[in-house]
């Protein structure tokens, strides 16, 4: 799950950065992102991570699973070093060590146990949360820059956190019929779609660091609290301190890693943009006539200009979407 989410983070942030910025709470962004092969591969990785996370929530407490989801950013950083030749500062090495230590502490503290059922009141609360997140997202999308990234990323984290809460008892369904007919399944899907849309909007606001950090914090903390209070999440007796320290260390390491991931990514995108500009074809230069008028002037069409360009050895202009 951690590996799948790490790959998804890397690919989806690249695709979001290459898509026209949306300033409205428009689901059409997901359709535009779906036009990028990079985004589709990242989405496939995210779906794989989602399925593995869903299966793990059947027995493992949410504070462990959600912290592990956030730890996918550590895999993103390592992949950037291996595949994109990112530099690995000493501070980032220390953060990766802290991340590993935090997850290890959570594994040692977590006590596997099946989830309690979420009653009607809990499902109503998830439905209300979905409506509130969507309304807040409608207004938060008007923010730009880092504030917009933080606001939208936080809302995305809350949506994913609510999806995790729905998934914990749903994973214990006794049969496929019970699984497909359970209202929690549809609340899970709705929260996941809203969270995915909000995350795409957050990444377009210019600060992937702020978006991912806000999403990870908002996605891990509420689910951990709800799991411990309502869903029968367990900690081995005497290891409560280990769970608390591991959770805080993991989140701190994740937030710290986002600080190093964004400048590397932006630098790579800037280099690619520069190469595209340098390699762009020359514009069509109209050939003057004897009377000093341009061949592609007001009296002639573009179709007339192209044969003239071919006869003089000029390259035809390319059309950019």
Automatic annotation (TrEMBL):
Domain of life, per lineage: Bacteria
UniProt keyword DNA-binding present: no
Record carries keyword NAD: no
Keywords, ordered alphabetically: Membrane, Transmembrane, Transmembrane helix
Transmembrane segments annotated in the record for this chain: 38-55, 62-84, 90-110, 122-144, 183-203, 209-230, 242-261
PANTHER family: CONSERVED INTEGRAL MEMBRANE ALANINE VALINE AND LEUCINE RICH PROTEIN-RELATED
Official protein name in the record: DMT family transporter
UniProt organism field: Micromonospora andamanensis
């Amino acid at each position: 799950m951690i590996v799948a989410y790490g790959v998804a983070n890397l690919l989806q942030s690249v695709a979001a950065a290459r898509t026209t910025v949306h300033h409205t709470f428009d689901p059409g962004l997901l359709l535009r992102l779906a036009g990028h092969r990079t985004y589709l591969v990242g989405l496939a990785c995210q779906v794989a991570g989602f399925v593995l996370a869903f299966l793990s929530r059947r027995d493992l407490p949410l504070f462990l699973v959600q912290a592990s989801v956030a730890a996918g950013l550590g895999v993103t950083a390592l992949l950037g070093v291996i595949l994109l030749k990112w530099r690995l500062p000493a501070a980032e090495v220390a953060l990766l060590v802290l991340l590993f230590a935090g997850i290890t502490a959570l594994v040692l503290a977590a006590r596997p146990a099946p989830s309690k059922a979420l009653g009607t009141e809990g499902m109503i609360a998830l439905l209300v949360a979905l409506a509130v997140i969507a309304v807040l997202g409608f207004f938060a999308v008007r923010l730009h820059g880092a504030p917009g990234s933080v606001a939208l990323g936080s809302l995305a984290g809350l949506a994913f956190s609510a999806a995790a809460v729905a998934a914990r008892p749903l994973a214990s369904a006794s049969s496929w019929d019970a699984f497909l007919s359970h209202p929690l399944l549809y609340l899970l899907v709705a929260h996941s779609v809203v969270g995915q849309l909000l995350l795409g909007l957050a990444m377009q606001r210019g600060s992937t660091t702020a978006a991912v950090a806000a999403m990870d914090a908002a996605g891990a903390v509420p689910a951990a609290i709800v799991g411990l209070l309502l869903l029968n999440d367990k900690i081995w007796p005497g290891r409560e301190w280990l769970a608390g320290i591991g959770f805080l260390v993991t989140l701190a390491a994740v937030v710290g890693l986002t600080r190093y991931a964004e400048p590397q990514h932006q630098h790579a995108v800037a280099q690619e943009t520069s190469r595209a500009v340098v390699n762009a074809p020359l514009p069509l230069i109209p050939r003057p006539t004897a009377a000093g008028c341009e061949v592609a002037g007001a009296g002639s069409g573009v179709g007339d200009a192209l044969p003239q360009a071919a006869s003089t050895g000029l390259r035809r202009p390319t059309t950019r979407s």
